[in-house]
Design a protein that fits this description.
Elements (H helix, E strand, L loop, with lengths): L3 E7 L2 E5 L4 E3 L4 E2 L3 E5 L5 E7 L7 E4 L2 E2 L2 H18 L5 E7 L10 H15 L6 H11 L11 E4 L10 E5 L7 E6 L9 H7 L6 H6 L1 H13 L3 H20 L10 H15 L4 E4 L6 E5 L4 H9 L6 E5 L6 E7 L1
Helix pairs in contact: 2-3, 6-7
The protein binds ligand DP6.
Ligand DP6 binds next to α4.
Length: 329
């Protein structure tokens, strides 16, 4: 029997205002809203074919058949879609990224955004962008922000249908770059899903969450006005606040390595001397250095010379998740 294959592509994103901690873990309803930029140069491509002959889902990641926790997460996500579509059949899922997961770039955002788009199409669900963002959020919170194009804001809400992301500015609005200084290429020790669970154990988390709306306002207007100095101040503060929560959780999570701090110190020094650069770190030791178009080549060169930096990846703002292909098997 011929199966139709649906293929989608999505980009990972870097958060300027971070998501850390859920008010409802099962639904991934975040404690606070967040803002991010999609990364054009990096992407995940995923194809899905529903197959009535399969007795279980099959998941291949970068050419390797997966079992265990990554398979379970994909399988649970497909169950949500099967329920919505009232279609019990299993699916063959093949996914690959053009960046190694060992590069320490969060791949769950692009992975679940691409899977949401390809699987919804394969199961015949006709979802709009908001509905796809809600669906992707159920797989990985940050994936909700990889559905819309460019700079996106994900809203915190008590309701399932109120928590989705939408574009606040398209990629061409402001050509910023994310230069990622890699200091470690191995996988992270505490994954974000486990980290979110610990956020509430830090006495700093309530203060971080209560003050998030004002940082969201500042970040949104810095993007709208293309005000780099204001953006730099707010993203560095927000990253430091999230890492302060991580470090003061029980048990504490320390994602920074000595090299991470060294890079952060260099970045603030470069900015004092006129280079438009600012740092932000996700749940890992690699340092994302946000740069203006005029500063990014010089920033990339200088970052590459800092001791301990293994490689510097770079990307301008990217588009949203898209269905790129459908074909008969
Ligand atoms: C530090 O979206 O990876 O990168 O919902 O459990 O998949 P799950 O978590 P995830 O968390 C991302 C955390 C972060 C900050 C951010 O991207 O906003």
């Amino acid at each position: 029997m011929n199966q139709e294959i649906f293929t989608a592509r999505a980009h990972p994103n870097i958060a300027f205002i971070k998501y850390w901690g859920n008010r409802n873990s099962a639904f991934r309803l975040p404690e606070n809203g967040s803002i991010s930029m999609n990364l054009e140069s990096l992407h995940t491509t995923t194809s899905v074919a529903v197959d009535p002959n399969l007795r279980e889902d099959r998941f291949t990641l970068n050419g390797e058949i997966r079992s265990g926790s990554s398979f379970e997460r994909v399988h649970a996500f497909l169950d949500l879609i099967r329920n919505k579509a009232s279609n019990p059949y299993f699916a063959e899922v093949k996914s690959s990224s053009n960046f190694p997961s060992s590069a320490g770039i969060a791949s769950s955002a692009s992975a679940f955004a691409a899977l949401a788009v390809s699987a919804a199409a394969a199961y015949g669900l006709d979802l709009n962008e908001k509905e796809l963002s809600i669906l992707a959020r159920m797989g990985s919170g940050s994936a909700s922000r990889s559905i819309p194009t460019g700079y996106a804001e994900w809203y915190a809400s008590d309701s399932h249908t109120g928590s989705f992301a939408e574009t606040i500015a398209p990629p061409e609005h402001w050509k910023l770059w994310d230069c990622v200084a890699l200091v470690e290429k191995s996988g992270k020790k505490v994954g974000s899903t486990a980290g979110h669970m610990l956020a509430g154990t830090s006495i700093l988390q309530p203060a971080r969450v209560a003050s998030a709306p004002s940082r969201l306002d500042l970040c949104r207007s810095a993007i709208k006005n293309r005000d780099f100095q204001k953006l730099a101040d707010i993203i560095e503060l927000d990253s430091n606040l999230m890492h302060a929560v991580m470090m003061t959780s029980h048990p504490p999570i320390m994602y920074w390595q000595p090299e991470s701090l060294l890079i952060m110190k260099h970045v603030t020094e470069y900015r004092k001397n006129g280079l438009e650069v600012a740092y932000t770190l996700d749940a890992g030791p690699n340092v994302h250095v946000i740069c203006t178009n005029k500063s990014h080549l010089e920033a990339k060169r200088r970052l590459g010379e800092i001791p301990g930096v293994l490689e510097v990846l770079s990307s301008p703002p990217g588009g949203g998740a898209e269905l790129i292909h459908s074909s008969q098997n």
